[in-house]
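User: Modeling request: complex.
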Amino acid sequence: MNQVRHHGGWVVVVSFLVALLLVVFPLPEGLQHARPQWVALILIYWTMALPDRVGAGTGWLVGLLQDLLQSNLLGQHALAYGILAFLSIKLHQRIRVFPLWQQALAVMVLLLLTRLIVLWTSGVTGRAPDTSQYWFASVTSTALWPVVFLVMRSVRQRFSVR
Amino acid sequence: MLLSLAALGLMTLDNRQKLPEPVQSSLSAVVYPLHLAADLPFSFFDFITEELATRRQLIEENDRLRTQQLQYAARLQRFDALERENIELRQLLQSSYEISETVLIAELLRVDLDPYTHIIKIDKGSRDGLFMGQPVLDAKGVMGQVDGLDPFSSVVRLITDPGHAIPVQINRNGLRAVALGTGDAHRLELASLPNNADVQVGDLVVTSGLGGRFPQGYPVGLISEIHIDPGEPFARIALAPSAELDRSRQVLLVKTRSQTPPPAEAEAGDEEPAETAPAEASS
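Assistant: Request completed. Predicted assembly structure:
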């Protein structure tokens, strides 16, 4: 029973690793601000798909990894992603039944919120970014949500992650 | 809830006082494989282009490098003589002079870190003898200082980072100032120089060696713009960094003889104020 319920955990781990890799993957100068919030997108997907397995703890952990990767203040993204996972689990039953574009809107709100938390924490420590392009990442991420969702769903079905 | 508290605690700890060295370095060593993986396609591409370079290209490059080396060697001869003379003169004045500086070459890892701070990642770490606060140069000037260490790689904070300040002097007349990072990769600002300071556009600004972090006499930048508003107490003086901060692939790590790697926590303790004091002044 237990064996059946928990299946394919490595897919989750690999997907997070790929997302983290994309976070530090070099982009051309002008596209820096448009880099999608890959980790947040993947986190939202998994919390919606497997709310009993991926939760705030997972979010906290990958957030910490992202902080280490980007060598910014430790715990910024851990806090933001912990809250993101919590909210997205609270909302997953509603969001799941939305059509894809409506889902994208809900996801955008969540993404903007994470961005806001990170902005607050960096503002408190005096390293706030002084450009409004900061928010642009959430827009590109939202635009990518349907793609991420479809790809991740086919991945999940392919490897029958439960 | 608990996790949020843990995150907040971690942030405070990281911000107020640096995490204990071993914790911090082992944590960042964890993500090193990911950084390497992100860099991999690019280093592979480099490898391929190097392998496929034609014989003629190699010969041309070789020729160019040889003539360049000859020129530098010739210039160095004169420099040696000058240095000896300088030491003798200083001995007459009974002041000390740092001579031996060892230099280590490191390469940039092509990864994007936090886009809102100016930091870069290099492929040498504490295993290669790097230490916190070590000055980093490129072929043209000062780039920044080591700000995070793990055994295999380290993070370098560039002089243009908004939280960075570097003590400088103007080469022409020895006027001292502090150059603050602005967050713009092509601009530094000289803080607190009065309106009547003797500064001209085009002046070379070099490190002053005050503060003991950066060795003296390395070029930082050229004065690019002077804006004097009689209503304000200080002139606004902008500086164009001479190092190619966003282009250099290889960096030099300098170690002067007085700056040995920290023996124990003693260094970490007095490191902090030196760095944060100017940073806080700027923000």
